[in-house]
Design brief:
InterPro entries (chain B): ABC_transporter_permease (IPR051393), MetI-like (IPR000515), MetI-like_sf (IPR035906)
Largest sheet of chain B: 2 strands, antiparallel
Largest interface: A-B, 107 and 106 residues
Number of domains of chain B: 2
Radius of gyration of chain B: 25 Å
Oligomer: heterodimer
Strand order of the largest sheet of chain B: 1-2
Membrane topology (chain B): Multi-pass membrane protein
Distance between the termini of chain A: 39 Å
Helix content of chain B: over 70%
Number of helices of chain A: 14
CATH architecture of one domain in chain A: Orthogonal Bundle
Structural class of chain A: mainly alpha
Number of helices of chain B: 13
Low-confidence stretches of chain B: 1-15
Family (chain B): Belongs to the binding-protein-dependent transport system permease family.
Strand content of chain B: under 5%
CATH class of one domain in chain A: Mainly Alpha
Order of helices and strands of chain A: HHHHHHHHHHHHHH
Helix content of chain A: over 70%
Number of strands of chain B: 2
CATH superfamily of one domain in chain A: MetI-like
Structural class of chain B: mainly alpha
GO cellular component, one term (chain B): plasma membrane
Order of helices and strands of chain B: HHEEHHHHHHHHHHH
CATH topology of the largest domain in chain B: MetI-like fold
Largest sheet of chain A: none
Shape of chain A: globular
Radius of gyration of chain A: 24 Å
Shape of chain B: globular
Number of strands of chain A: 0
Mean pLDDT of chain B: 86
CATH topology of one domain in chain A: MetI-like fold
Distance between the termini of chain B: 11 Å
Protein name (chain B): Sugar ABC transporter permease
Chain lengths: 275, 316
């Protein structure tokens, strides 16, 4: 019994150790953000929280249009997520529950598009954006990402397993049209899948870096990630300020993740083991 | 049955009831709704996917700076690419970084998953805590890891100094850059893979372990004769995910050591190489040729993975 308990204690010591390693960067970021740059350069390093956080925040706000960038990022992430949820679930429901000519061919095309790396389209896509007059505009981020193959594939799997054909048929016999069946039958039963797809899309959009870096050419009109990278490049020596910026850019996402963590983790892992 | 979701289940969807003549006609007339419902993805793909990809193929055989006239140059871009030492360096860097980050990630994840499986309490705290690095901003964390490996005040050097080991100019030398980048990738991906493995472990039937216990197999033997073989499809899934991610490595080196790829271009990956050619040098034809080669690389790795999956399917 004591040996068994000892093993249990050792197990949790190891697991907590790993947890500390995963959490350490956040703690250290907070420490750096609350101290002055001079403190950071000291040896031995200062391992306690300082009182410089307000000053650092002021410096960040003076050097980049932080709130504008955050607003831009929020606009992009929220509108992309809503569009993806609507378009992907509608297409997925159609693929999962209806038969029509060309369905299988269309689905194969959809799967094939997942193999295509983003770089393959990037150069001409920039030209397209220039043609549309969207270079520097948030539209260049929202519109191309408004529907995606992964989400349709994911939601289709869910609809296939969770909605009985009889239910769809009953709705049809009751005089429900296609759209009403989607809205009143399919969507309400797909909440867990929608929650996962929503948070997944939001996180991906919030953290997206390469395409915004390419297409957002106006330095006063950036997303958070690009603004942060600019701050790092131009004020790299002022570490406490740069780390404050990094911290401020992470917080909203950690909060969103905290709210939906369970559904997000469940969704991310079950794809791997489902047959 | 275990398997992965990367290959779609090729099953026909069971469809609603028998079709009397009337309902059949109704259904034919309502096809347009279905196509309309699918259209957003396909229209967007045509405009922002297919069209630019076809242009990329044409562009790969041209010379263009984005302003002047396009000039057809045949295979010149590809010839330059093959003779460009930076391209080969980027390719090597990408593969080396992939190995340096994926192998430790998956090994640590497997160990943590086995431990997490035998834990009874606090499991959801561990799960959420382990997963958080995976949703954290890449740019913010690249800045953070850049500071940890900094020469002047970085934590790593502070540690070395207090142990009496000479400090290193981590981000100023080729191997230091690779170590810093892969440390960050490991930190970001261990938790994700741990939870994938945990889900896989929990799907292994209990009775197999009971049988092994009856046969007198110890913990280690049980792990190698039951756990690992049963986990194989899940492990392959994580390898596929890591491969796709590894080939796309861009943000970590770009933020940590800049567009040049750092000392000896040690952080130059194929995607960073592409980004430079296209959007810094405005050498669009050359960038298109690089993009095509990245695509070929993805296809090659996918084919290798696919073969492994098929091999697994046959011996089942």
């Amino acid at each position: 019994m004591t040996r068994y308990r000892l093993r249990g204690v050792a197990l949790h010591v190891a697991l907590v150790g790993a947890l500390l390693v995963f959490m350490f960067p956040f703690a250290w970021t907070i420490i750096m953000a609350s101290n002055s740059t001079a403190d950071i350069y000291r040896f031995p390093p200062k391992f306690s929280f300082g009182s410089q956080f307000d000053d650092n925040v002021r410096h960040v706000l003076a050097n980049v249009a932080f709130f504008q960038s955050m607003l831009n990022t929020a606009v992009v992430a929220v509108s992309t997520t809503l569009l993806v949820l609507f378009f992907d679930s509608l297409a997925a429901f159609t693929f999962a529950k209806f038969r029509f000519p060309g369905r299988n061919a269309l689905f194969v095309v959809l799967l094939a598009t997942m193999l295509l790396p983003a770089q393959l389209a990037a150069v001409p896509q920039f030209q397209t954006m220039a043609l549309l007059g969207w270079v520097g505009s948030l539209k260049a981020l929202i519109v191309p990402g408004a529907a995606n193959a992964f989400g349709i594939f994911w939601m289709r799997q869910y609809f296939q397993n969770s909605i009985h054909d009889e239910l769809v048929e009953a709705a049809t016999l009751d005089g429900c049209g296609f759209l009403r069946t989607y809205w009143h039958v399919a969507l309400p039963s797909a909440r867990p899948a929608l929650a996962f797809l929503g948070i997944f899309t939001f996180v991906a959009s919030w953290n997206d870096y390469m395409w915004p870096l390419i297409v957002l050419t106006n330095p006063d009109h950036l997303t958070l990630q690009v603004a942060l990278s600019t701050l790092n490049r131009s004020h790299g020596v002022d570490y406490s300020m740069v780390m404050t910026g990094a911290l401020m850019a992470m917080v909203p996402l950690v909060i969103v993740f905290g709210i939906f963590a369970r559904q997000f983790i469940k969704g991310s892992t079950e794809g791997a083991i489902r047959g | 049955m275990t398997g992965t979701a990367t290959a779609p289940a090729a099953t026909a969807v069971p469809l609603t009831g028998p079709s009397s003549g009337q309902r059949h006609r109704r259904r034919v007339r309502s096809y347009w709704r279905f196509y309309l419902a699918l259209s957003p993805f396909y229209v967007l793909f045509a405009v922002f996917g297919l069209y630019p990809m076809l242009s990329t193929i044409v562009l790969a055989f041209q010379r263009w700076d984005g302003l002047g006239a396009r000039r057809f140059t045949g295979l010149e871009n590809f010839r330059f690419l093959i003779e460009d030492p930076t391209f080969w360096l980027a390719l090597t860097n990408t593969v080396v970084l992939f190995l340096m980050s994926t192998v430790p990630t998956l090994v640590i994840a497997l160990v943590l998953a086995v431990m997490l499986q035998s834990a009874v309490r606090f499991t959801s705290v561990y799960r959420i805590g382990y997963f958080i690095p995976n949703v954290t901003s890449l740019v913010a964390m690249a800045i953070f890891f850049g500071s940890v490996f900094s020469t002047n005040f970085g934590l790593v050097n502070a540690m070395l100094r207090s142990l009496g080991i000479p400090e290193q100019d981590w981000l100023g030398q080729p191997w230091g850059i690779k170590i810093a980048i892969s440390t960050m990738i490991v930190w970001q991906w261990v938790g994700y893979n741990t939870l994938i493995y945990l889900a896989g472990l929990q799907a292994i039937p209990r009775d197999q372990y009971e049988a092994a216990k009856v046969d007198g197999a110890g913990t280690v033997r049980t792990f190698f004769s039951i756990t690992l073989p049963q986990l194989r499809p899940v492990i392959l899934f994580t390898v596929v995910i890591s491969t796709i991610g590894g080939l796309q490595t861009f943000t970590e080196p770009q933020v940590m050591v800049g567009n040049s790829g750092g000392t000896g271009q040690s952080g130059m990956t194929v995607v960073l190489f592409f980004y430079r050619a296209a959007f810094l040098d405005n050498d669009y034809g050359y960038a298109a040729a690089i993009a095509l080669s990245i695509f070929a690389l993805v296809l090659l790795f996918t084919a290798i993975n696919w073969r492994i999956f098929r091999g697994r399917g046959e011996d089942r």
